[in-house]
Known about the structure:
The chain has helices spanning about 25-30, 30-40, 60-65, 85-100, 105-125, 140-150, 165-180, 195-205, 230-235, 255-260, 315-320, 320-330, 335-350, 380-390, 415-429; strands at about 75, 135, 160, 185, 210-215, 240-245, 265-270, 280-285, 355-360, 370-375, 395, 395-400, 405-410. It is of the alpha/beta class.
Amino acid sequence: MPSDRDITEEGSVSCSDAPGMGRRDWLKLGAGAALVGFSACDGRGALEELRPPAGAADDAWRAVRGRFLLEPGRAYLNNASLGMPPREVVDAVCEGYRHLSSEPLDGKHLLQDQIAEEVVPRLATLLGASPSEVVLTRNASEALHLQTTGLDLSPGDEVLITSQEHPAGRRPWLFRAARDGVAVNEVFVPSPLPTEEEIVEAFARAITPRTRAIAFCHVTRGGHRYPVRALCEMARSRGLVSLVDGAQAVGQFPTHLGELGCDAYSASLHKWMLGPSGTGFLYVRAAARDRIRSAFAHDASLESPAFDPPGTLDLPVRAALSSALDFVETLGLERIEARCRFLSDHLKARLSESSRVTLLSSNAGQSAPGSTIFEVEGIDALEAVPLIESRADAHIDEHQRDGHNAIRISTHVYNTTEEVDRVVAALLD
Ligand SMILES: Cc1ncc(COP(=O)(O)O)c(C=O)c1O
């Protein structure tokens, strides 16, 4: 993981340099220098001020909270729905659009180069993949459609999904069932999760001679964390393709796709990675290209798989992922994981003080660090969430799925124990 990449040594471009600069001027500075110019253009978001926090407690993370635009005093504990990009990411999007609008073709080429030469390779490195295995998408849903519709299947072939899929993961399979006559069979997975062995065993039991693939979440909407490596190993040993929905995983803890062993993996970058809204990616393992194919190119080949959605793109949004990568790499994914876990442990401790609360999140190994779900006796989650939000000046979410009438609280690095306490007090009042 290139977490030791020192952005500040790559040079900086002051805001007064930026207007009127042509593509060649920008490129003369090198992609990294241009990137820093975009990131720090208004002088507020300079990354060199950000230091890796020491420890997981609030004091060490106060400066990090200051990087977010959320009104002071308001608490955002719904990161699992949509992440909150820090100001350097917002600045990068603005500067990208400014450049694109003042010098359209120069801007376009500069941003395209930045995405191809900077964003995709760095993202691939962070994910333990090769750049040729990763393409950017608008979100996880788009990537899930591409991996599902790209899988080579014949009528009557079977696919196993779980009872805990997000609609974004389930709907592409319903499409394959309706269009191609694929049988989509659901493996029931209880919530809270059973043991890892029981999950793998439930999949193994459901395999028939017609089964071709298994599909499941790395982390579910409710924060349950699946044994991805064990499931992919089992799938490979039975000759099956494995396809993973990583929307709730990437950015919350280190994820090494090569080691996980999945054939395809789709994720959002606008949730836990703190990228701008409208960003995600699709990973297809190089060795799986004979079974998962491009939805776009008639002339795609194993060497040139052409998974990229074609056409004019939201280049400034994608290029701003450089700034999100800077941010996450400076903090470090291990430290982000520890901080998220610290906050959700605090939340769980506070909730367990009430006999009315039933915690539904599994133990640490099987729950995502930042997402917690629970039921409160006598409370309808849908009705309670807006009330709690207005009492605590906070954002949270419901989780009426998997048979639960639950509330979901998702904590990222910018939250504090005080915010958690405030929400719990409003909740139990
Ligand atoms: C498990 C899971 N998969 C997929 C998605 C869809 O993500 P996106 O909005 O990036 O398409 C979500 C969104 O919340 C999710 O929780």
